[in-house]
Amino acid sequence: MNEDINVPDITTSDTTTTTTSTKKQTQCKVDALSAEEELALERLMSSAYTCIVSKLNTP
């Protein structure tokens, strides 16, 4: 069992590194967003959150 868990761990660490650099790039882009873009992003995040919560609450 432990060997099965360890193999994806190696892959995950690579993915994590990529994700971290992507996050840094995203943060730079977020700093450069206009007010309209920020509002659109907030609406998108809000609707995504609402969608996820409704899916979780559906029996």
What percent of residues are in strands? under 5%
The counted number of beta strands is 0
Radius of gyration: 17 Å
Report on the biggest sheet.
none
Arithmetic mean pLDDT: 69
* Inertia-based shape: rod-shaped
Tally of alpha and pi helices: 2
Q: How many domains in all?
A: 1
Low-confidence stretches: 1-19
What are the secondary-structure elements, in order, as H or E? HH
SSE map:
Blueprint: H1 2-31, H2 35-57
Provide structural commentary:
It is built from two helices and no strands. Helices cover 90% and strands 0% of the residues. The chain has one domain. The longest helix is centred in the first third of the chain and has 30 residues, at 2-31. By secondary structure, it is an all-alpha fold. The chain is rod-shaped and about 40 Å long.
Brief summary:
With 59 residues, the protein is an all-alpha fold. It has helices at residues 2-31, 35-57.
Features:
2 helices, rod-shaped, mainly alpha, 59 residues
